[in-house]
Amino acid sequence: MSAHLSYGRVNLNILREAARKDLREFLDKCAGSKAIVWDEHLTGPFGLIAQYSLLKEHEVEKMFTLKGGRLPPADVKNIIFFVRPKLELMDIIADNVISEDKMHSPRDFHILFVPRRSMLCEQRLKEQGVLGSFINIDEYILDLIPYDGDLLSMESEGAFRECYLENDQTSLYHTAKGLMTLQALYGTIPQIFGKGECARHVANMMLRMKREFAGSQTQILPVFDSLLLLDRNVDLLTPLATQLTYEGLIDEVYGITNGYVKLPPEKFAAQKKQGEASKDLPTEPKKMQLNSAEELYAEIRDKNFNGVGAALSKKAKIISAAFEERHNAKTVGEIKQFVSQLPHMQAARSSLANHTSIAELIKDITTSEAFFDNLTVEQEFMTGVDTDKVNTYIEDCIAQKDPLIKILRLVSMQSVCNNGLKQKVFDYYRKEILQTYGYEHLLTLNNLEKTGLLKLQTSTRNNYPTIRKTLKLWMEDANEQNPNDISYVYSGYAPLSIRLAQVLARPGWRSIEEVLKMLPGPHFEERQQLPAGLHKKRQQGENRTTLVFFLGGVTYAEIAALRFLSQMEDGGTEYIVATTKLINGAGEAEIILFSQQ
Amino acid sequence: FYVRASYKESKLEARLSLLQSAVDEYNKAKNEFAAKATEEEMKLLRFQRRLDEEKGEALLGLSLHDTLHALLSANYHKQAEQLYRDFRVPDKRYWWLKLTALAEKEDWEELEKF
Description:
- The complex is a heterodimer.
- By secondary structure, chain A is α/β, with parallel strands linked by helices.
- Helix content of chain A is 48%, strand content 13%.
- Chain A has helices spanning 13-29, 40-47, 52-57, 87-103, 119-127, 159-164, 170-186, 197-212, 237-240, 246-254, 269-274, 295-300, 305-328, 332-366, 369-382, 392-399, 404-417, 423-437, 441-451, 464-470, 496-505, 513-518, 556-567, 585-593, and strands spanning 34-38, 60-65, 78-83, 108-113, 134-139, 145-148, 151-153, 191-195, 226-231, 256-257, 260-263, 286-289, 523-527, 544-551, 573-579.
- In chain A, α4 runs parallel beside α5 (119-127).
- The radius of gyration of chain A is 26 Å and the shape is globular.
- By secondary structure, chain B is mostly helical.
- In chain B, α3 (64-73) packs antiparallel against α4 (77-86) and α3 packs across α5 (91-104).
- Classes of the chains: A alpha/beta, B mainly alpha.
- At the A-B interface, α16, α18 and α19 of A face α2, α3 and α5 of B.
């Protein structure tokens, strides 16, 4: 089940096991039967740590979602609330507890704050007069959740908004704590690099926490050679562009949450009839787990979508050839060997069928005219064509009242590529958007301005072309089938964030000092002292391992690009990715859109 | 200061006066664009109220674009023309609007005319 976590260079299963152990300990503290009341944002991430079966072993009998009013009836001794420390939630809990107390038999109440308990929340419970009802108030430190062999995420929804819009640094604190946990398990990371305001904060907090624990040095050989902290607002352009890898497109079109995707059922109906029993009706969306445990998916997830078809058909040939082998099997031994491979082959075949269906669904979209037009405009902006004028395509889209998110994404992209929009263009777009989508979006536009996604051009110089040229953000001849450069993930555009990581590994940031100064926020380098005797002796030809932490989110295409760099023969560096949240441009804009009071 | 704008949940009269204070604040903050946008919103709200009372349409609270669309599909071409001029809607968008609105209700005659 969790085997895919231990394949990678760094065994992330250790982290998962540590998290499970803590959870078991807490559950055992509350003796007797239990019901868990969940904060709905937590169920997804928790599913990656512990399945229902594990909870069941510890006498968890019922699970509910947290909502106002009375709890659903359950014949259990303990009620445990699993919540994020948010004040709104405390009121709901108090409501639950009070109505439950009025009802009947005494219950034991417990609260588990994830990832940390908060004085404010406890104060609120006290004001509501229910603090005394809780026997246990505890915290469950769950910062970084392993998603895949090389991917960690905190899945904290609001991190981007909190950091860049509300100036709330709570999530940065959690990040620093999470990195400390990581260092406790995998050893101190000797080198820390960073770029951006938030990165600086996190690094400062980490160093401070380290000093506080100065006495208790971990005697673990460091697994990571360096850590790279990157602010999302250093590179706002990348998430705005449409991702063109297989996994990225699945996310753009259907949205991947907690490693699962929901797909329209039509395509999968036929296959269900002959396969598994038809438990769920075909009208329900099909839910699929996506991670590198599935051999085929691991192979194609990071490919440019234009290369996926070829890979699928090649795979199909291999599988049918394997099935053909049975005709050649003559001796009993050969037949036995063939039969022993059957389950594996069948699994491969059904996974092939699934991904062919998904690819077909996505192909319908990518070959549509609208998708192509949209992409053309994006690429024009990224190559710097006419970014200082009102774009006619955007104009048409507004006139037809296309989804607002699409418009905002394009306008923001134009703004980023032009280092802000000219006053006339800026006002024109704003007026069009307000007239079409309603006056209330004045606040939305305001938020976009605050995060820097949309801005007025203040100086006449546009830095973007310089940045583009120095970092080679645009490659004319991106090879989609057999990539030789990371630009394949966006069919030509090489994500700025990943270029920074690439240059850092070789030849180092000193070579691009000029460009770094143009990007927002400071860049820095820190060293952490290792206890004597723990200095790693590097074998000849051994790769370095770098943890790249994206503050404010990372896209699947960026992950794909980093994986590509890890696999390059002469790269010399392997990357593990960590982030506050897995995002795409639509998600990012959406967060800002719905963050109005 | 823009928080004031989000108070606009209340009843229309209260809403207009709140928007007026938002305009004042925006002017103080020298945010010309926002001030103007707010004024236009007030104008639109008043227009919508008048039409709602006269014709019994439910337009209040719609965006300008949606108001135009509703007017065109309900055959109030004169009023739509007026809004189009008052708010200086770009021609291109107005044509698009008119086209889709008329095509939706399959009013080919009116479409011929224009």
